[in-house]
Amino acid sequence: MKPVFTITNKVADRLRQIDQARGFLAAAKLSEDWIAEMSRKALIREAHATTHIEGSQLSLEQAENLFAGKQAPGADPDDVRELLNYRKAFDLVADYVAGQEPITEGLIRDIHKRLVEGVRGGSAEPGTYRKVQNYVSQTGKAVYTPPPAHDVPILMREMVEWFNTETDTHPVLVSGIAQFQLVHIHPFIDGNGRTSRLLSTLCLYRTGYDFKHLFTISEYYDRDRLAFYKAIQGVRDSGMDMTGWLEFYTDGLSTQMQEVTDKGTRIIKRDLLVQKHGLNERQAAALGRILDFDSLTVRELEEKFPNVNRRTLQRDMRGLVEIGLVSSEGATNKLYYRFKEKTL
User: DSSP state, 241?
Assistant: First the structure.
């Protein structure tokens, strides 16, 4: 296997942005509690998005409830299982990275097994390479015929050997190539997309590009699935030149990392203000939400602190107004608060 691609100005620029974001996260003084909470939310969003791409009808709220051990009334049992399976597969990847072991075909099969086990009657043959010809369809129309089944073991072996020994290619590009190659080989009956995206994440993690587990690349794909599919198919349409796909892949990852960097910058700003003004826990939470979502109402703060009475929360917000951190706007019964930029 020898992938063909060109490092265009766009790819080089996106790699620079990704490396800058990596440096920011390594150097930034972000609270461990914030990182833990944000990585938890990122895992839920990634699980939701990667299964949504494949047809799951779960809402993000249902996904959050399921990860919290709650029920999702009315949800398709297979959709529920696929979502929870992702967490099991992600845990496998995290453990594997911690052990610093090379990526193997056995690991990829184990990832696939965890992703599809117990879903849709086991028709995906968990962890087993396909023995029949399969097809990639969009809107009911076959758009790609993968290699014949007897070629799968050879192609998978070549792929694994390549990204375990490749040293001249940027790790981010290796992860993007691995994602495309697995989708292209399509080694399993079903679940290839989910497996490929988790394999890409594994490739990033094992080379130090884990970004504190804060990115959700599938969320980027899910925002415009047509563009995602077009980027993958574009490789085949251009004689297996991966340049267009890698432009799309690095663009997605850099977009994600810019969003993470922005959030990190806001939380650093919040922490500085909390320390400077001696804010209490509720005020710190209120300020953080305002920085994240531009505004806040007392009703929204009540959802965060359901056991605190409304008068106390209103007093907290008045305190933030009095010291000049936020401004209040709107009628008394529909008051909302915004951040005052000049305060830092």
Answer: B
CA distance readout (Å), 324 to 225, 328, 332? 44, 10, 19
The CATH number linked to 192 is 1.10.3290.10
23-38 pLDDT per residue, tens: 999 988 888 888 888 8
Pair of tokens at residue 317:
């917000």
Instruction: Report the mean per-residue pLDDT for the chain.
Output: 91
**Per-residue confidence (pLDDT) for residue 215, from 0 to 100:** 87
Establish if 271 belongs to a structural domain.
Answer: no
275 vs 267: CA distance, rounded Å: 12
Q: Give the confidence band of 84 by pLDDT, cuts at 50, 70, 90.
A: very high
- Which residues does residue 137 pair with via DSSP β-bridges, in sequence order? 142
129 and 210 inside one domain: yes
Domain boundary, last residue among 208, 233, 264: 264
CA 200 to chain centre: 11
Measured CA distances, 291 to 105, 226, 228, 269, 314 (Å): 44, 32, 31, 9, 18
In tens, the pLDDT along 186-201 reads 999 999 999 999 999 9
Domain limits for position 239: 9-264
